[in-house]
Design a protein that fits this description.
The complex is a heterotrimer. Chain A is of the alpha/beta class. Chain A has helices at residues 27-39, 51-54, 76-90, 102-107, 110-118, 164-169, 184-195, 210-213, 220-229, 261-266, 276-295; strands at 43-48, 61-62, 67-71, 95-101, 123-129, 175-180, 200-206, 236-239, 242-245. Chain A has a single domain (10-295), classed as Thiamin diphosphate (ThDP)-binding fold, Pyr/PP domains (Rossmann fold, 3-Layer(aba) Sandwich). Helix content of chain A is 35%, strand content 16%. An eight-stranded mixed beta sheet of chain A has the order 3-1-4-5-7-6-8-9, sandwiched between helices. In chain A, a hairpin with a 2-residue loop joins strand 8 and strand 9 (242-245). The longest helix of chain A is centred in the C-terminal third of the chain and has 20 residues, at 276-295. In chain A, 61% of the residues are buried. Helices cover 10% and strands 23% of the residues of chain B. Chain B contains two helices and five strands. Chain C folds into two domains: 2-245, Rossmann fold, CATH 3.40.50.970; 253-387, Rossmann fold, CATH 3.40.50. The longest helix of chain C is centred in the middle third of the chain and has 33 residues, at 213-245. The model of chain C has no long low-confidence stretch (mean pLDDT 97). The chains are: A alpha/beta, B alpha+beta, C alpha/beta. At the B-C interface, strand 1 of B face strand 9 and helix 9 of C.
Chain lengths: 297, 87, 391
């Protein structure tokens, strides 16, 4: 069931309040707004250490108008699992949602993520992926792409980006999806679909960070869009393990319809030192990811 | 001990970072004669400072107390109804 | 009154069964495993109406327990040694959140090398984080104290999590007769769960975002104040429980033949039983010795101890743990408090029984008699802290 939503139909209630402390142009701020629009006040948001911890601002105030639990770095999945396992007893509407960065998901919190997925805990796990440990000052994570500059990979990262959505597919959970802040309505639809599925739902949200990726804050949405248009980021969803490319990524299956990768890479300062041969390697990685995804369709 | 615990609990509050409008170098200005009421600026504002008012002449209202001047609204506006001007 | 023959671990399981727990989660580790297995069995058979979450690590165990507890559920977990160390970060977070949780710690040595035998180092390692810390002497006390901890931690004057230590293998796997209270007695004793806030209520609250430094320090101070309050609550609870069951543990400490003694032996845990036997033997031999059992290590029973120490000539503290580079944990605490007395007793600490080394009647006898003789003769001791090394 694909929900058709118009911008005007989206709830205007503010779940992320003005005056928060994120960088200008922050994609996590955008993501949180969309999360609120999708799932509303029933959310209990579990946030491990990340930019989104800081974005909440200082006590006694919080910029998030929802129930939020800040938790130790590696514990987000497990804390949400505790909430998920008790929510029927508590009564009222409790939708446990993890809002975790790539560090908390793919690195320090990986074991907890896998454990909760294997138990098929009834919760929604969102990995908001800005492709580095941004909150501590742009250090590389396992989800930093090949060739990217970070403070701990000053010559460009030599390893590939870990294929986390595919890893989650192999956990055999009922719903895996990728999303992007460039396509909010797609993200919101996926969230609402996840809400109606019982079990562990994983959504991987691509979140280009102007501060860490080195581009002008006004270009956040454009960079996110270029990622998809060049094929570097693939939008899909998988119910019961069967992958379906979601628009517009379905059109980019045909490589000839993609924008040149260079367009996506050159707008970001973190790829400035990439030579032509490095771009070719990057392209090969993108191609192989497409190949892998297709195997699951 | 009194019953007023000192707990690590906060409540939703506008302006936790103060008046973040002070962060701005450039300011978005709306030319309503070009505005086609698509709602893209509202959709893509990371600060929740843009409101769209149905049925109003001034469809787009920006809260300049908190607008950080990131410029996304200007970028995504299909008719360039929003332009960034120096403060 | 139903007497069952129970190991320490099964006594824990019985206490949890009686305490109307909503969610149980744990990761197995020797010597705690039989607690987890028994509780898992009870849940599967419907003996306990509780959710049981099979987690992939101890860190996740406390995190899952915390998540459920945040939503006003009464929860339980148990661990030992390396598992306890693995969840150390969560221990701080739980206490700082002021969310009551009860946990059993079956004490075990920390490696390397791998050692499953008993020692108190893992327990003591948690002493700073704001958890109430109790330790049992026998399996009856294990059962009773777990039940009491649910009541104490959920008291609004406390609102802190609490752990009960029990000696690995010595208690956990050794059977003793235990009086298991009837369900309705425990039910009336335990009030409905209470905590300072719920994350699953209607209020839109954020837990744990950045504080002002001043506010955070006040939060820390509040934990200290609550720890102080806990002393009173522990005594009240002990009294109330004794009215229902006939068993009192003295609250924070137990004074065995202390009132007319000149010398005191201080200890915590299963070996206090041996100390009491030795005390009786020494009394028969004319030594005026008593045993001060530490039941609660946190909050540290400062006032009770100072009161007991007033007319004492010498105190011999046995620690089953060491803070490397310094003293045994209980010794350091007792020593510090003895400073407050005008007429101070001689306070000596002995480190013994680490890594599972057995300490029996003979070892205690020699140490205590040696200590008493030395103080009687000289009025002081040559070594204020000593290790009772094996062999």
């Amino acid at each position: 069931m694909r929900l058709l939503l118009r911008i005007q139909d989206l709830p205007k209630d503010k779940y992320l309040l003005p005056g928060h402390t994120a960088c200008p142009g922050c994609p996590e701020a955008l993501g949180l707004r969309y999360l609120g629009m999708a799932l509303g006040k029933d959310i209990v948001l579990v946030v491990p250490a990340s930019c989104s911890s800081i974005l909440q601002g200082t006590m006694p105030g919080s910029s998030l108008a929802m129930r939020v639990v800040n938790v130790p770095f590696a514990s987000a999945a497990a804390v949400a699992s505790g909430i998920a396992n008790i929510k029927e007893l508590v009564g009222g509407n409790v939708v446990p949602v993890v809002w975790a960065g790539d560090g908390a998901t793919a690195d320090i919190g990986f074991a907890g993520l896998s454990g909760s997925a294997e138990r098929n805990d009834d919760l929604i796990y969102i990995c908001v992926d800005n492709e580095a440990y941004m909150n501590t000052g742009i250090q590389r994570s396992s989800l930093t792409p090949y060739g990217a500059w970070t403070t701990t990979t000053v010559k460009g990262k030599s390893e590939d980006k870990k294929e986390l959505p595919l890893i989650m597919l192999l956990h055999k959970i009922p719903y895996v999806a990728t999303a992007s802040i460039a396509f909010p309505i797609d993200f919101i639809s996926k969230l609402r679909k996840a809400l109606n599925i019982r079990g562990f739902k994983y959504i991987h949200l691509h979140a280009p960070c102007p501060t860490g990726w080195r581009f002008d804050p006004s270009k956040t949405v454009e960079v996110a869009r270029l990622a998809i248009e060049s094929g570097a980021w693939i939008l899909f969803e998988a119910e019961g393990g069967k992958v379906r490319l979601t628009p517009p990524s379905n059109t980019y299956l045909d490589k000839s319809r993609r924008k040149p990768l260079k367009e996506y890479l050159s707008i970001q300062g973190r790829f400035r030192s990439l030579r032509d041969e490095d771009v070719k390697v990057f392209e090969k990685i993108v191609d192989s990811t497409w190949e892998l995804i297709i195997k699951f369709t | 001990m009194s019953k007023t615990y000192v707990l690590p609990i906060s409540r939703p509050s506008i302006g936790v970072g103060g008046k973040t409008g002070y962060w701005r170098i450039k300011k978005p200005e709306v030319n309503h004669s070009k505005c086609i009421r698509c709602g893209m600026c509202w959709l893509y504002c990371p600060e929740s400072v843009i409101d769209i008012i149905e049925g109003s002449d001034k469809y787009v209202v920006i809260n300049y107390d908190y607008c950080k001047g990131c410029g996304i609204c200007s970028e995504v506006c299909p008719t360039k109804a929003i332009v960034m001007v120096n403060e | 009154m139903v007497i069952k023959v129970l190991t320490g671990n099964y006594a824990v399981a019985e206490a949890v069964r009686l305490s109307n727990v909503d969610l149980i989660t744990a990761y197995p580790i020797t010597p705690q495993t039989t607690i987890v297995e028994r509780l898992s069995e009870y849940v599967d058979l419907g003996v306990i109406k509780s959710r049981f979450v099979r987690v992939e690590s101890e860190f996740s165990a406390l995190a899952v327990a915390y998540g459920a507890a945040l939503c006003n559920a009464r929860v339980f977990t148990a661990t030992s040694s390396h598992g306890l160390l693995y969840m150390h970060e969560m221990l701080w977070w739980v206490a700082g959140s002021r969310i009551p949780i009860v946990m059993a710690v079956v004490t075990r040595s920390i490696g390397p090398p791998w050692n499953i035998w008993n020692e108190h180092g893992d327990f003591m390692d948690q002493r700073d984080c704001g958890w109430l810390m109790a330790f049992a002497e026998n399996n009856q006390e294990v059962l009773d104290t777990i039940i009491q901890l649910f009541r104490i931690t959920e008291d609004e004057r406390v609102y802190l999590p609490g752990m009960l230590g029990l000696d690995g293998f010595l208690l956990s796997h050794t059977s003793e007769p235990v009086d298991v209270p009837e369900e309705h007695i425990v039910k009336s004793f335990l009030k409905p769960r209470s905590q300072p806030y719920s994350m699953c209520g209607t209020e839109l609250i954020t837990l744990g975002n950045l504080p002002k430094a001043e506010d955070h320090m006040m939060m820390r101070y509040d934990i200290q104040v609550s720890m102080e309050n806990a002393k009173k609550v522990i005594k009240e609870v002990d009294l109330e429980y004794s009215k229902l069951t006939g068993r009192s543990y003295g609250g924070l400490v137990e004074c065995y033949r202390c009132s007319d003694s000149s010398y005191l032996v201080v200890g915590m845990g299963g070996w206090v039983g041996t100390m009491k036997d030795v005390c009786d033997e020494l009394r028969d031999l004319g030594y005026k010795v008593g045993v001060l059992k530490i039941r609660f290590f946190r909050p540290f029973p400062e006032e009770d101890i100072i009161e007991v120490l007033r007319s004492i000539k010498g105190v011999l503290v046995f620690d089953r743990s060491i803070s490397y580079g310094s003293l045994g944990h209980i010794h350091a605490e007792v020593l510090a408090r003895s400073y407050r007395l005008g007429n101070r007793p001689v306070v000596k600490g002995i480190i013994a029984g680490l890594a599972g080394v057995n300490v029996g009647v003979k070892e205690f006898m020699n140490s205590i008699v040696g200590f008493v003789n030395e103080v009687e003769e000289r009025g002081y001791v040559e070594k204020y802290s000593e290790w009772l090394l094996p062999g």
